[in-house]
Amino acid sequence: DKGTDYSNPVHRKNMIASVTEMVASFKDEPYVLCWVLGNESDYSLGCNVKSKPKAYYEFVNETVKMIHQMDPTRPVAISNGTTDHLDLIARYAPEVDIFMINAYYGSRGFGGVWQTVSEKLDRPVIIGEFGCPAYHEGKSQDIAEAEQAYYLRGCWEDIMANTAGSKSGVALGGVAYEWMDEWWKNYDPYLHDR
Fold first, then answer.
1. Rounded CA separation 89/110 (Å)
2. Model pLDDT for residues 82-123, shown as the tens digit of each residue
3. Can you spell out the DSSP letters for 111-154?
């Protein structure tokens, strides 16, 4: 009921066992590009990252070291929802290879994410989630899809503008989330059937 407590030895042991099993099961899979720890854990939904961030990032570092030992061929990323804890990652989780952020900032891209990470953490960045649905209440399907394309193009152009050799040079890529609309965003699944 209280969620994950990253200072609790039992919770930590269970999570290490889970990650160990995952890496052991999939480390020989040729299509695994990197390992990713967390998913917006810094929002503290179902965990205590906000109240005990040091414990969380120390645990992340311990886990990354373990993954590096099990699979030295792939990098390990941490996936956050903000850039709020970059100083803590730098201090308590220096083994993290890639900073990943889920960011829905609009059609102009990702603002100061690139420069902030470059200055505070000095790690490459993957946008782990970005995008918008094609459904737009009160708009025709053609207009809604055109607006979605405009949004996604702006995000992708910002990622490309920040890859190696340009601007900040820290962008590794991004993942459009997602390729189909989520019916619950419309609250009427039948509108999505077409």
1. 20
2. 999 999 999 999 999 999 999 999 999 999 999 999 999 999
3. TTHHHHHHHHT---EEEEEE---S--TTS-HHHHHHHHHHHHHH
- Please, are residues 115 and 75 in contact by the beta-carbon 8 Å criterion? no
DSSP 10: H
- Going through 2-88 in order, the beta strands assigned E by DSSP cover 35-37, 76-80
Q: Note the pLDDT tens digit of each residue in 16-51.
A: 999 999 999 999 999 999 999 999 999 888 888 888
Greatest alpha-carbon span in the chain: 54
Contact 105, 111 (CB under 8 A): yes
Q: Residue 143: what are its φ and ψ, rounded to 5°? A: -65, -45
CB 125 within 8 A of CB 100: yes
Give Cβ neighbours of residue 185 (< 8 Å, ≥ 6 apart).
Answer: 133, 135
